[in-house]
């Protein structure tokens, strides 16, 4: 018999579940309160140096108190979050999330499911979403889909699948082997498209930026010229990336025309529909994305216009077999079986680079079940109405200049003053906590850019933005 003391319990479960339960209920109540009272707070506030310094702490070697950690979170993290849940948040293109999604995240955390594969119901939930997405975009049976972090990764997967289509699965082993593949996307395409080309070994120069017309749409004549030029030079055009909702101005490429072109030229057609793809959920907006149903693959985010909490990107691929041929990698420790927990082939890990995968499908399933496609479509429509209201207000104010009209949910404008003064107006607006637009450059001018994505934003928030810009602009003169 040893007289050494037994080691402390190795399990990390609480000794006192009752205590944890009480704290857990408080966390839940506080978080719901945070969402319910969102309007009572500023959109964003600068992080005080002392608060930032608290997160340069020493390594926590010894156990600590959960209540104390929660206290630190409440006082140091929550007040200084980015504010994208706030109705005054109009910067970049970010979703607002919902209480329903938050609750689903909590449930998913409890299950701690790994969606890489195997035979369990969480996998069936993701398969359910794949089927729903397939129907939303009118893709055929046999199409495949996968949750990923966001559209950046979803577009990367779209590019890799196109590379397999062009060179066959052998490219995965042999590499490009001298193949000179060329892709084409509008000059207004998101930076993740050249990044995807870079990451796939083709190099970002291998995507040709095609000029856009006055409406921000890829010029089809210029596209045809670029493809012909590359062919004549002995290069191998393989892919056109259409954008449904450019990040700068909300423009939608002529997707039907791109589909026709790709068909005639034998090219793959991928769509970056990060936020714009879900316009199909609004009967009013759907005609604008006509042709989306003809794509070979679509990347989009549930975490933007779908209002699912971060992160919930998705890629849909028409040819599920090609998708699988792009990623499936047999390994002895991942052998599937006909029965038992190792059944359930094909596994999601054969459709993307991730092996371990979280349960993003659950928050999406709860969101779609609870709100239905109609309510989500209506909220998408409403954000476009807000953009039209902002456009009208800008047009009515002599001090303001419209740089890009309301396209979908995005408006770019500026105070009639210098770029530097406009940049300062935006910083001052952020620091005032009234509204949080972002900036971009339109026709060489610095633009104040408002993108309406958050379902909580209302007309009065748009008015607060305009009034704030007018006031700060006048003060800067
Ligand atoms: C947001 C966005 C992306 C990137 O998506 P993430 O989810 O942030 O990775 C790509 N393209 C467009 C048009 C976007 O709006």
Automatic annotation (TrEMBL):
Keyword RNA-binding carried by entry: no
Keyword Amino-acid biosynthesis applies: no
Cofactor: pyridoxal 5'-phosphate
InterPro entries cross-referenced by the UniProt entry: Aromatic_deC, PyrdxlP-dep_de-COase, PyrdxlP-dep_Trfase, PyrdxlP-dep_Trfase_major, PyrdxlP-dep_Trfase_small, Pyridoxal-P_BS
UniProt KW keywords: Aminotransferase, Decarboxylase, Lyase, Pyridoxal phosphate, Transferase
Annotated GO MF terms: transaminase activity
UniProt-listed Gene3D superfamilies: Aspartate Aminotransferase, domain 1, dopa decarboxylase, N-terminal domain, Type I PLP-dependent aspartate aminotransferase-like (Major domain)
Superkingdom of this protein's organism: Bacteria
PANTHER family tied to this protein: GROUP II PYRIDOXAL-5-PHOSPHATE DECARBOXYLASE, MIP05841P
Family according to the record: Belongs to the group II decarboxylase family.
Protein name (Swiss-Prot/TrEMBL): Aspartate aminotransferase family protein
Organism name: Rhizomicrobium electricum
Lineage of the species this protein comes from: Bacteria, Pseudomonadati, Pseudomonadota, Alphaproteobacteria, Micropepsales
């Amino acid at each position: 018999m040893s007289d050494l003391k037994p080691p402390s319990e190795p399990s990390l479960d609480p000794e006192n579940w009752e205590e944890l339960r009480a704290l857990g209920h408080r966390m839940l109540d506080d978080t719901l309160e945070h969402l319910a009272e969102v309007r009572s707070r500023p959109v964003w506030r600068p992080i005080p140096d002392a608060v930032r310094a608290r997160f340069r702490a020493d390594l926590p070697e010894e156990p600590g108190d959960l209540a104390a950690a929660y206290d630190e979170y409440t006082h140091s993290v929550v007040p200084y979050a980015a504010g994208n849940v706030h109705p005054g948040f109009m910067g970049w293109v970010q979703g607002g999330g919902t209480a329903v999604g938050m609750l689903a995240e909590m449930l998913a955390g409890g299950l701690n499911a790994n969606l890489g594969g195997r035979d369990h119901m969480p996998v069936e939930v993701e398969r359910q979403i794949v089927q729903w997405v397939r129907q939303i975009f009118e893709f055929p049976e046999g199409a495949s889909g996968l949750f990923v972090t966001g559209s950046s990764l979803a577009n990367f997967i779209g590019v890799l699948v196109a590379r397999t289509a062009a060179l066959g699965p052998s490219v995965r082993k042999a590499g490009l082997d001298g193949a000179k593949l060329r892709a084409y996307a509008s000059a207004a395409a998101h930076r993740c498209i050249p990044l995807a080309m870079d990451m796939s070994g083709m190099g970002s120069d291998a995507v040709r930026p095609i000029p856009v017309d006055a409406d921000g749409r890829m010029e089809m004549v210029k596209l045809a010229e670029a493809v012909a030029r590359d062919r004549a030079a002995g290069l191998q055009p393989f892919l056109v990336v259409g954008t449904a909702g450019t990040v700068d101005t909300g423009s939608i490429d002529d997707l039907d025309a791109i589909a026709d072109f790709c068909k005639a030229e034998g090219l793959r057609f991928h769509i970056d529909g990060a936020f714009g793809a879900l316009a199909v959920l609004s009967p009013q907006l759907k005609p604008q994305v006509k042709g989306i149903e003809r794509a070979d693959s679509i990347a989009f985010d549930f975490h933007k216009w779908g209002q699912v909490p971060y992160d919930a990107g998705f890629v849909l691929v028409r040819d599920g077999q090609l998708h699988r041929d792009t990623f499936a990698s047999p390994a002895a420790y991942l052998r599937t079986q006909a029965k038992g927990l190792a059944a359930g082939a094909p596994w999601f890990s054969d459709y993307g680079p991730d092996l371990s995968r979280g349960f993003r499908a659950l928050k999406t399933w709860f969101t779609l079940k609870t709100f239905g496609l109609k309510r989500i479509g209506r909220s998408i429509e409403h954000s476009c109405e807000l953009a039209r209201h902002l456009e009208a207000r800008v047009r009515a104010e002599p001090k303001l200049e419209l740089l890009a009209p309301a396209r979908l949910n995005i408006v770019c404008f500026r105070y009639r003053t210098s770029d530097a003064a406009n940049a300062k107006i935006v910083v001052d607006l952020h620091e005032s906590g009234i509204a949080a637009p972002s900036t971009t450059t339109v026709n060489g001018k610095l633009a104040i850019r408002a993108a309406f994505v958050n379902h909580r934003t209302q007309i009065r928030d748009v008015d607060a933005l305009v009034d704030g810009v007018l006031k700060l602009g006048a003060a800067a003169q």
